[in-house]
């Protein structure tokens, strides 16, 4: 026999059911009512596909779909190849990979429903949903199914998925920010007004106050607190009710319970002219919680606004050689095909991967591997997208399209790591899950006892139990501490994405550092100089500086501070891939590598070193110079402090030179590797995690982005690439390694303060509940005690702002 289900709201979207519309459907063995044909059709589709568990596990109401219309004309534009090229992330085998955005994705049930339903479509290879970013990673075979059909299916379920567009996401984030500000502004204004009257009411309880004045103050408090409760507190109610529908208890459940109980008791006292009102507690509670939520949203927004489509300064055009007209034509990178001949002018960026056709080229690959030293390539060697041409123009042949470049592979590694990254639940959530149930049981028992003995104060005693045990302090224990900690991070020029970083860094056992730009400044400086003539070192450095004075090469910048107006060179000539030559006072000088040094015998005596540079005077070597990346002033101290605190330090660098080993030995790294590729770094991190290690990564290069996303926690340096900042959990706005040590220390202190807050709030409740249950604490004292317990938590948390 069918069970009847009568409701004034739609079972799917929970909106009111219009009069005269009477359509139902059996879902999970019960007859459910719906508000329109659209919701009925979506529910029927879910039932027909045996996906009824969606309604059991969802934590948000379903999105109300538009009336069932034909969406093919609207979405078929996405089937066109030229349109898809603007959105396709990559192409593997016969599949296209794309990112979709749907702001209706709000919970894990949404992700579950989308993944289960769309994956059943023939031709859909894989689908992953990132709930926090509201992004769908989709892979499909265009020969088996059209993209428009997939999008139409998502639309029919109430998710208006469309190809990811950064500008649309930013617009929606701005709208959400405005909503937070409106709620916070109303709560702050309401709290200030109600608190003024609350002080008078509390004082009047001891000194006496006429009933007329008391009624007036309560009336104004009621009028002010009501919109604060209904509008500003809405995010907490929606979350709490969703959790209850999912048969779970999250932190918003005790928050909502506290607000409803306090407000209901105040309403009762106000309209019956008996007891105490707690409108001040309601507004204060909402205001404090909204501050924490808003700050967390803003911090997360500032870092994650470029997720997946970060501005990585990627060039969007290339110059293609046209053999028919013997000319060059600028085309968009999406039109570049394998085999095309491309011209890369001096100072320009390489658009796609390819093979060098010209004899030689010198490229800046710092955006790819973080290493600032130019890379010299010969004909036939591989040229990677993202490299920058340092010197004369060169020709290359494309070996991959725009979507198959090394650059895009880095993006894919990052996106995959972001999708797989686990989220750590807060300790307070676990406690509250059982705490609320216990309080409800205790309050029920207290009410039953006092009613059974015929006490007239049964209601107020029960309310005292609920108010005095109201989990305000418990609910504030975590968010206020997190907020104060985040403010201290911002004060020290450290930006973090969210609260997960504060907990994950507390568990870190191993720290992996990049070299260039992280432990070093990414600037060359003179390491050693050996003089083989009668001239002084200062004179030799001045001669070199004169030769390099007009160059912007990284090597030239290392000698800029040694330049003297009294030492100038004539006829300076730059020799690609070798060095620079010039003349002074009738003598010829050359500074560069050993390829142009004339005296090979003297070179052998000096010790020919591929990393060394030589100064010659009239073809005779007069000095040998070695350069090294400048170590950060604080690097040694910070690493020693971290090691003394028990952290295991690792050094992974893409630099193939011996400088990595020298740096590791100088600072004291036991674990180090040089010439490490991004995929090797990722494998290294995963092996550490397989050993149950908790890994923190500190880096700055694009090649660090994948391991930033995969690590348990990650920190990006101030000069890090945009994609690296996006992947990292924390971003240093000041270029100082000491902030890494500060972040680790403050995270541990934050967890300690949270535990103190939880211990205090639970200890307070366990000691006050018995007194309230015995009738020794009137409701207004319970309200004061509840407020004071919250103040203790807030004051303790404020220590984190220092």
TrEMBL record:
Transmembrane segments: 184-203, 215-237, 249-271, 277-295, 431-452, 458-487, 757-774, 780-798
Topology of this chain in the membrane: Multi-pass membrane protein
UniProt keyword list: ATP-binding, Cell membrane, Ion transport, Magnesium, Membrane, Metal-binding, Nucleotide-binding, Phosphoprotein, Translocase, Transmembrane, Transmembrane helix, Transport
Main location: membrane
Protein name: Cadmium-translocating P-type ATPase
UniProt cross-references to PANTHER family, sorted A to Z: ATP7, ISOFORM B, CATION-TRANSPORTING P-TYPE ATPASE-RELATED
Provenance organism: Kangiella spongicola
Superkingdom of the source species: Bacteria
HMA domain span: 96-162
InterPro entries to which the protein is assigned, alphabetical: ATPase-cat-bd, ATPase_P-typ_cyto_dom_N, ATPase_P-typ_P_site, ATPase_P-typ_TM_dom_sf, ATPase_P-typ_transduc_dom_A_sf, ATPase_P-type_domA, HAD-like_sf, HAD_sf
A biological-process GO annotation: copper ion homeostasis
Family statement: Belongs to the cation transport ATPase (P-type) (TC 3.A.3) family. Type IB subfamily.
Entry-linked PROSITE patterns: ATPASE_E1_E2, COF_2, HMA_2
One cellular component (GO) term of this entry: plasma membrane
Subcellular location: Cell membrane
Record GO terms (molecular function): ATP binding; ATP hydrolysis activity; copper ion binding; P-type divalent copper transporter activity
Gene: cadA
């Amino acid at each position: 026999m069918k069970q009847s289900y009568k409701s004034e709201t739609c079972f799917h979207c929970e909106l009111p059911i219009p009069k005269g519309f009477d359509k139902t459907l059996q879902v999970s063995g019960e007859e459910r009512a719906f508000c329109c044909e659209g919701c009925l059709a979506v529910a029927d589709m879910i039932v027909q596909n045996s996906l009824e568990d969606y309604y059991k596990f969802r934590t948000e109401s379903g999105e109300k779909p538009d009336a069932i219309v034909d969406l093919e004309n609207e979405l078929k534009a996405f089937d066109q190849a030229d349109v898809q090229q603007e959105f396709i992330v990559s192409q593997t085998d016969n599949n296209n990979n794309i990112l979709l955005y749907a702001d209706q994705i709000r919970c894990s049930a949404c992700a579950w429903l989308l993944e289960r339903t769309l994956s059943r479509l023939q031709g859909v290879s894989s689908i992953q949903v990132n709930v926090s970013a509201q992004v769908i990673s989709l892979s499909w075979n265009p020969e088996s199914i059209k993209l428009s059909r997939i999008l139409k299916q998502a639309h029919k379920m109430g998710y208006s998925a469309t190809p990811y567009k950064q500008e649309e996401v930013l617009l929606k984030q701005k709208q959400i920010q405005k909503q937070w500000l409106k709620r916070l502004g109303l709560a702050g204004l309401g709290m200030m007004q109600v608190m003024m009257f609350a002080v008078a009411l509390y004082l009047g309880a001891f000194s006496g106050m006429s009933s007329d004045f008391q009624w007036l103050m309560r009336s104004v408090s009621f009028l002010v607190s009501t919109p604060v409760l209904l509008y500003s507190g809405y995010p907490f109610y929606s979350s709490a009710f969703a959790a209850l529908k999912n048969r779970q208890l999250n932190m918003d459940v005790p928050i909502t319970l506290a607000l409803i109980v306090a407000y209901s008791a105040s309403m009762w006292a106000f309209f019956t002219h008996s007891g105490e009102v707690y409108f001040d507690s309601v507004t204060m509670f909402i205001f404090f919680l909204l501050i924490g939520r808003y700050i967390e949203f803003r911090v997360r927004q500032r870092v994650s606004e470029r997720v997946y489509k970060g501005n990585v300064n990627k060039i969007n055009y290339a110059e293609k050689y046209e053999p028919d007209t013997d000319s060059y034509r600028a085309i968009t990178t999406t039109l570049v095909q394998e085999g095309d001949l491309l011209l890369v002018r001096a100072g320009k960026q390489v658009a796609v991967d390819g093979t060098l056709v010209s004899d030689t080229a010198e490229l800046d690959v710092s955006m790819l591997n973080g290493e600032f030293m130019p890379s010299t390539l010969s004909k036939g060697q591989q040229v990677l997208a993202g490299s920058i041409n340092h010197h004369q123009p060169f020709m290359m042949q494309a070996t991959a399209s725009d979507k198959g470049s090394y650059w895009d592979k880095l993006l894919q590694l990052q996106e995959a790591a972001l999708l797989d990254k686990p989220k750590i639940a807060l300790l307070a959530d676990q406690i509250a899950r059982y705490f609320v149930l216990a309080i409800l049981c205790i309050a029920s028992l207290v009410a039953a006892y006092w009613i059974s003995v015929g006490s007239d104060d049964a209601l107020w005693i029960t309310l005292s139990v609920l108010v005095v045990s109201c989990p305000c302090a418990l609910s504030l224990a975590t968010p206020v501490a997190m907020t104060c900690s985040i403010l201290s991070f911002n004060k020290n020029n450290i930006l973090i994405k969210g609260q997960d970083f504060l907990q994950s860094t507390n568990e870190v056992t191993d720290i992996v550092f990049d070299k260039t730009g992280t432990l070093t400044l990414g600037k060359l400086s003179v390491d050693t100089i050996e003089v083989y003539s009668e001239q002084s070192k200062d004179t030799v450095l001045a001669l070199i500086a004169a030769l390099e004075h007009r160059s912007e090469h990284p090597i030239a910048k290392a000698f800029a501070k040694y330049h003297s107006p009294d030492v100038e060179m004539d006829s300076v000539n730059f020799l690609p891939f070798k060095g620079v030559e010039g003349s002074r006072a009738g003598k010829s000088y050359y500074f560069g590598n050993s390829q142009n040094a004339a005296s090979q015998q003297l070179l052998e005596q000096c010790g020919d070193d591929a990393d060394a540079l030589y100064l010659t005077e009239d073809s005779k070597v007069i000095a040998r110079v070695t350069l090294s990346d400048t170590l950060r002033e604080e690097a040694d101290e910070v690493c020693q402090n971290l090691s003394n605190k028990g952290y295991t330090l690792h050094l992974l660098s893409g630099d193939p030179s011996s400088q990595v080993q020298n740096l590791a030995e100088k600072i004291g790294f036991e674990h180090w590797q040089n010439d490490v590729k991004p995929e090797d770094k990722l494998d290294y991190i995963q092996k550490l995690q397989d050993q149950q290690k908790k890994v923190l990564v500190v880096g700055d290069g694009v090649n660090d982005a994948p391991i930033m996303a995969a690590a348990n926690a990650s920190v990006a340096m101030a000069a890090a690439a945009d994609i690296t900042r996006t992947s990292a959990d924390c971003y240093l706005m000041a270029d100082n390694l000491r902030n890494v040590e500060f972040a680790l220390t403050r995270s541990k202190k934050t967890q300690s303060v949270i535990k103190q807050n939880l211990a205090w709030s639970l200890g307070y409740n366990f000691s006050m509940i018995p007194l309230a249950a015995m009738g020794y604490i009137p409701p207004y004292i319970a309200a004061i005690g509840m407020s004071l317990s919250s103040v203790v938590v807030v004051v303790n948390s404020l220590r984190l702002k220092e």
